[in-house]
Design a protein that fits this description.
Strands 6, 7, 8, 9, 10 and 11 form a six-stranded antiparallel beta sheet that branches. Strands 4-3-2-1-5 form a five-stranded antiparallel beta sheet, with no helix packed on it. Helix 3 crosses helix 17, helix 9 packs across helix 11 and helix 10 crosses helix 11. Strand 7 and strand 8 form a beta hairpin. The chain is built from 17 helices and 13 strands. 60% of the residues lie in helices and 12% in strands. The chain folds into three domains: 70 residues, Protein of unknown function (DUF3247) (SH3 type barrels, Roll), CATH 2.30.30; 124 residues; 249 residues, MetI-like (MetI-like fold, Orthogonal Bundle). It is an alpha+beta fold.
Length: 566
C-alpha cells in the first residue's frame, strides 16, 4: 500500500518551486520616483521653458525692431488746462501715483520732437487730463539732419522766389528739396572722392620726402626726386583749394529756403530746407503709402550712414564691418584650428603632453572674452604691430599704422576666441571617422598624409563645419574684445577704396554689437535711441541667422556628398 501511494504521488504533476514562483509572479510596479517619469517631465519642462524664453526674446526684438520703420500716427491732445500737445504715442503705463483704490489711472508717453524749441523729445501726459484726442491729417513730420524730428502744421515756404502758401507750397518744396538733395550728394562726392584722392597724393609725397631725408645721402638724383615730390605736394594743395572753393560755392546754395511750421502752442518754427531729410503726413497715408514708406525707411536703414549721434539714419558701415570681421576671423581660425586638431588626433603620440594640451584648449573655451581683448592689445597691437611699424612704416612714426587698433587685430583676436571651439569640434569629427576606413586606405597603398587629408579630414568636414558655425555665432555678437582692438563708435568711411592695397586692414571699423552697446548705454538721449537700438538688434540677429543658415546648408551638402560616395 505504501509503495502504491508513493508511485501515485510521483505520477502527480509537481507545482512550481519557490524560485519558479518568484519568476512567474507579476512584477511589482516601481515607485513614482524610481520609474523615471519625473525626470522625463522635468526635462521636457526645462526644454519648453528654454524655448519660450528664446522665442520670447526673438519675438520682442522682432516686433520692436520692425515697428521702427512703420509711420506711427501723430496725436493732437487738448488737455484739461487748455494747453495742446502734438506727438507720437510711444508708451502707455500705469501712473506712478495710481493705487488700486484710486482707480485704473494711466499715462502715455508722447514723442513731441522739436528739441530745439522744447529742449526735450518726450513728454508724459496723464490720460485723465486729456479733454480731446484727435489725429489731424494736416500734421507733418519733418526728419532733420540735426535736432531730431519736428512736428507741426506747415503754413508757408519762404525762398528766394518769394513766400508760397497752400497747395503750391508743396510743389515748390519738392522742387527745392530735390535741388538740395542733389547739392548735398555733390558735396559728399567732392569731399569723399576728390578731397580723399588729393589727401592720398599729399600723404604719399610727404612720406616719400621723409624716406629721402632719412637716407642722409646727398645725391643729385635724390635732390631731384625731393624737388619732384615737393612739386606734387604744391600741385595737390592748389587742387585742394580749388575743390574747397567749389564746395563753398555749393554750400552757399543750400540755405535758400525755409519751411515754417505752426507748433501746438501757437509758435512758429523755421526749418531750413537744407536740414530736411524728408517730410511726410502719417495721418493722411493709406495702407499702400505706408507700405511704400516702410520699404523706403528699411532701405535707408540698411544702406545709409548713421546720423544724429547714431540715433537716426542707417547702419550700413556697422553691417559691413560685422560681416567683414566675421569673414576674416573665419579665414584665420579654420586653417589653424583644423591643423591643430589634425596634429593632436592623427600625429601626436598619446601621453601627458597631449593630455595637458587638450585640457588647456578646453579651458580656453571658458576664458572671458575681455581677457582675449587684453591679450590682443598686448600681443597683436603693441608687440606685433609696433614691430611692423618700425620695420615697414618707419617714415610714419610716431603716428602708428599697425601699432593701434584695426580690423586685422580685431579679427585675429576673435579668431583666438573661437579657436578652441573649432579644435574641439574638429577632433570630435576626426574621432567619428571609423578606423576601418583608414585601414582600407592603408591597404590600398596610401601614405599616412594621403590617408589623413584625403580620407579622415573629408569625413570630418561636418564636424568642422559645426565648430565654424558655433564660432561664427559667438564671434558675431562679441563686444568686449572688439572695444579694445579696433572698433569705434563712428567710422562712416569704409576700409575699402581705390588706392592700393584697396582693403585697408589697419583702419578702424564699426560693429553692430558695439553699436547696440553705444545706443543702450552711451547715447546722450537713451529714450530717442531705443527704436534704433531694437532695429539694430534685429539686424544683428538676422545676420547671425543668415551666416549660421549658410553654414548649416553647406554642412548638409557635405554630408549628402559623403553619403553618396559611401
Amino acid at each position: 500500500m505504501s509503495a502504491l501511494w508513493q508511485a501515485s504521488k510521483a505520477a502527480m504533476p509537481k507545482g512550481p518551486s519557490h524560485k519558479e514562483e518568484a519568476l512567474i509572479a507579476p512584477a511589482r510596479r516601481p515607485g513614482f520616483w524610481r520609474s523615471g517619469d519625473p525626470l522625463v517631465w522635468m526635462s521636457a519642462g526645462a526644454l519648453a521653458v528654454s524655448l519660450l524664453m528664446v522665442l520670447g526674446l526673438v519675438l520682442l526684438v522682432a516686433v520692436r525692431g520692425a515697428a521702427y520703420f512703420w509711420p506711427a500716427p501723430v496725436l493732437r491732445l487738448e488737455l484739461a488746462d487748455g494747453s495742446t500737445v502734438i506727438g507720437e504715442q510711444v508708451a502707455r503705463e500705469r501712473a506712478p501715483a495710481a493705487t488700486p483704490s484710486s482707480g485704473a489711472r494711466h499715462r502715455i508717453q508722447l514723442k513731441v520732437g522739436n528739441r530745439d524749441v522744447y529742449g526735450m523729445d518726450f513728454l508724459w501726459v496723464d490720460e485723465d487730463q486729456i479733454a480731446l484726442r484727435e489725429t489731424p491729417r494736416e500734421i507733418a513730420v519733418l526728419e532733420r539732419l540735426q535736432g531730431g524730428d519736428a512736428y507741426g502744421i506747415p503754413v508757408r515756404l519762404e525762398s528766394a522766389q518769394g513766400t508760397v502758401h497752400g497747395e503750391g507750397m508743396w510743389q515748390r518744396f519738392q522742387e527745392l528739396h530735390a535741388q538740395v538733395v542733389r547739392l548735398r550728394n555733390e558735396i559728399r562726392r567732392l569731399e569723399r572722392d576728390r578731397v580723399g584722392a588729393i589727401n592720398h597724393r599729399i600723404e604719399a609725397a610727404r612720406l616719400a620726402l621723409v624716406r629721402l631725408g632719412r637716407s642722409g645721402a646727398k645725391d643729385p638724383r635724390r635732390a631731384a626726386e625731393a624737388a619732384r615730390q615737393e612739386e606734387i605736394i604744391a600741385q595737390a594743395e592748389r587742387e585742394y583749394q580749388e575743390v574747397l572753393q567749389e564746395i563753398r560755392s555749393l554750400r552757399s546754395q543750400l540755405g535758400k529756403g525755409v519751411l515754417v511750421l505752426a507748433l501746438a502752442d501757437g509758435r512758429e518754427l523755421e526749418v531750413p530746407v537744407s536740414e530736411i531729410v524728408r517730410v511726410y503726413f502719417p495721418n493722411a497715408m493709406n495702407l499702400m503709402q505706408k507700405l511704400g514708406w516702410y520699404a523706403s525707411k528699411l532701405w535707408e536703414f540698411v544702406s545709409q550712414e548713421p546720423r544724429e549721434s547714431n540715433t537716426e539714419g542707417g547702419i550700413f558701415p556697422a553691417i559691413f564691418g560685422t560681416v567683414l570681421m566675421v569673414l576674416l576671423m573665419t579665414v584665420a581660425v579654420v586653417p589653424a584650428g583644423v591643423l591643430a586638431a589634425v596634429y593632436l588626433t592623427e600625429y601626436a603620440k598619446e601621453g601627458w603632453v597631449t593630455s595637458v594640451l587638450r585640457v588647456c584648449i578646453r579651458s580656453l573655451a571658458g576664458v572671458p572674452s575681455i581677457v582675449f581683448g587684453a591679450f590682443g592689445v598686448g600681443f597683436f597691437i603693441y608687440f606685433v604691430g609696433g614691430r611692423v611699424d618700425r620695420l615697414f612704416f618707419p617714415e610714419k612714426l610716431p603716428a602708428p599704422t599697425f601699432g593701434t587698433g584695426g580690423i586685422l587685430w580685431a579679427s585675429l583676436t576673435l579668431a583666438l576666441l573661437t579657436l578652441p571651439v573649432v579644435i574641439v569640434a574638429t577632433e570630435e569629427g576626426l574621432a567619428s571617422v571609423p578606423n576601418s576606413v583608414r585601414e582600407a586606405s592603408y591597404a590600398l597603398g596610401a601614405t599616412k598624409f594621403e590617408t589623413v587629408w584625403k580620407v579622415a579630414v573629408p569625413g570630418a568636414l561636418p564636424g568642422i563645419m559645426t565648430g565654424v558655425i558655433l564660432g561664427i555665432a559667438r564671434a558675431a555678437g562679441e563686444v568686449a574684445p572688439l572695444m579694445m582692438t579696433g572698433v569705434v563708435k563712428l567710422a562712416p568711411e569704409l576700409p575699402v577704396d581705390g588706392h592700393p592695397p584697396f582693403l585697408h586692414l589697419e583702419r578702424k571699423l564699426m560693429h553692430l554689437g558695439y553699436f547696440i552697446y553705444d545706443l543702450g548705454f552711451q547715447s546722450p538721449n537713451v529714450e530717442a535711441a531705443q527704436p534704433m537700438l531694437f532695429a539694430t538688434a534685429l539686424a544683428l540677429m538676422v545676420i547671425v541667422f543668415a551666416l549660421n543658415f549658410a553654414g548649416i546648408r553647406l554642412r548638409s551638402r557635405i554630408r549628402a556628398r559623403a553619403a553618396d560616395r559611401v
